[in-house]
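Today's session is about reading a structure prediction critically. Students often jump straight to the picture, but the first step is always the sequence itself: look for stretches that repeat, for charged clusters, for runs of hydrophobic residues. Only then move on to the predicted structure, which in these notes is written as discrete structure tokens rather than atom positions. Here is the chain we will use throughout the hour.
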Amino acid sequence: MQETFVKLIQIAIGKRSQLDTTPTADEWQALFDEAQRQTLAGVLYPAVEILPKDQRPPRHIFLSWFSLKEAIVDHNKKMDHNCVWVAERFKKVGFRNVILKGQGNALLYPTPGLRQAGDIDIWLEGKRKDIIEYVRRFFPKQRVQWIEMEFPIKKDTVIEVHTTPGFMSCPTDNRRLQRYFKERQQEMIENKVALDKGEISIPTLEVNLVFQLTHIYRHLFNEGIGLRQLMDYYYLLQNEGAKALLPQIRKETKRLHMTRFCRALMWVLGEVFLLERELMVMEPDEQEGRFLLREIMLAGNFGLLDERNIHKASKWGNFWQITNRNWRFVTHYPREVIWNPIYRLWQFGWRIKNGYK
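Below is the predicted structure for this chain, in token form.
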């Protein structure tokens, strides 16, 4: 089934025209379930639609897929509107901002409305303390993390306010990453795109190629990686200006000690999305790539259906569960595995010290 699902992705991105075999009704149900699990149902619908008639799914699955696709399109319209609304709201009170991933990534897709939206991640310019105080003015008991906190001002949309786009667990790598973001903050704020009936700021292509690589890397250890995140990165690399940026992205990747992960990711992008070798950040590593692909297929989108991610009843139970889960990565990414629990303990202490319980 995995092989057929990959081929369906390749049809959706225009790399092939049909499947090699015709799936059975049960296999089509499994493909539809996996599309939902990976939050790719919307972008895969056109592939199902253009298949030869003898390869298409049974009518009831096709209609269910169509209904889900329409719901995704409608949801994206609401998310576009809410992105502009929340960006303007923060700007009016003095926080210039950048929308991360999400609706900005959707603009890279051939049909933006088919990319299944998640939450809204917005990075605010300003001091961490001021940002936290503003959010807690409205939601006094809102949980605070060093990198982000929820701002539940909209009942139908999860909004996450970021004090920085991302982080690395290793202090040295994290300092380099934070300096990278800070040096490019102004150009990101000025990088505006039209959305809905307004505009938003999104990261530049160069920053996105670095930031989203670190974001995918972080999710491997915290929750899990989904194929939607990889499709986002595929479309970033398909951007007209990406090829010229590859030497710089390669340099930053090495500085952040993500070479092995990047090479694994390039193999997966080549295997699943048939990414051209000249658009790869680094030479692909098949052995590491196969390991990473197994993790992706097990975890699904953000690891939501991964039984290994079942939360424990206590904070310490969750701490040890995550630590034990990540230990299987130690021979592949030892730097991150060793520093990750230290970072989480530091963050816990930081919250206590600052009264952010």
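Discussion point for the tutorial: Residues 1-57 form one domain.
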